[in-house]
Amino acid sequence: MKIDSVEVYKLDMDLVEPYEVAYSRFEKAENILIRVSSGILDGWGCAAPDPHVTGEYADVIFKKAQEEIPFLMNKDPFRRAVLVNDLKKRTPGLFSLWAALDMALWDLIGKKADLPVWKILGGYRKRIKTSITVGICGIEETMEKAQEFIDSGFSILKIKGGQDVQLDIERISFIRRKFDSRIQIRFDANQGYSIEETKEFMEKSAPLDIELLEQPTNKARPEDLGVVSKNSSMPIMADESLVSLLDAFHLVKRGLIDLMNIKIMKVGGLSEAIQIDAVARAAGVEVMVGCMDESAIGIAAGLHFALSRKNIRYADLDGHIGLISDPAKDCVILDKGWLYPSSLPGFGWKGL
Prior knowledge:
single chain, 352 residues, alpha/beta, Enolase-like, domain 1, TIM Barrel, 2 domains, three-stranded antiparallel sheet, 12 helices, globular, Enolase-like_N, metal ion binding
């Protein structure tokens, strides 16, 4: 089996509703699609760069993909590790581009085997419940969005904050009072807090039954996560502080965190994510699979990863919800907050 065709596409998708997090406002998703073909089979991958998380820009990824992806011609797609490693040497630091190629090769391998990737990787579960994100906004809008999501069948809300501790607590308090124990609440400060603000948030929000606190402090100082997690009853999750296998090793070796958020785009591919999960599992640290704003083909890769591994307890795979004109929307099935894979082989998308 040889790769006989490669293509790169730019995919810009507006958001139905723009949203805000501690460090930025998002109005559209800029993705790059990669198609790797062998005969009648096509493998599809997606890059979703984010300058705040992966340090990449979409125009750079698109240009480098066009320049470098042709090296795959006449190569054996089953030698995935070699091909991804070769791309890493050609494109240092471009994590989401590595992820796109790794994804495309897994998709092609799954289609050749006529099996979904989640079964090839282990097939631990058939579905997983995802959270849905409420961006930074006022109390009234927060409540409207929470009601809308709960009416749609979601039972886990991920509240974004990190700009104002008191407002963050008030928003969560209003949600908890209205919906009581019917829902789970996760909070993501996106690096917005200092150590002191984090401690204040944890102390004042203790009665609100928050399931976890994600990346409260700046990623440049991972030791701050250890300070706030020490003697805290609220589990602390690393997100932006975790972008590599080495990061995972240092975070767990030093006992800085309770949980990890692994994003395929952030760590450079599904294969790298599997290795990071192994480090987490060895340390007794459970994992969330997260995402960027990305086409459903990218979300599908995260979903197949989440379905395949026992140690993955949480999913935050809502980055495709609210994207306008996503061509891959059917490869992920959403039903009342539960995510299911397509029944088709690979990641379940036939392509453009």
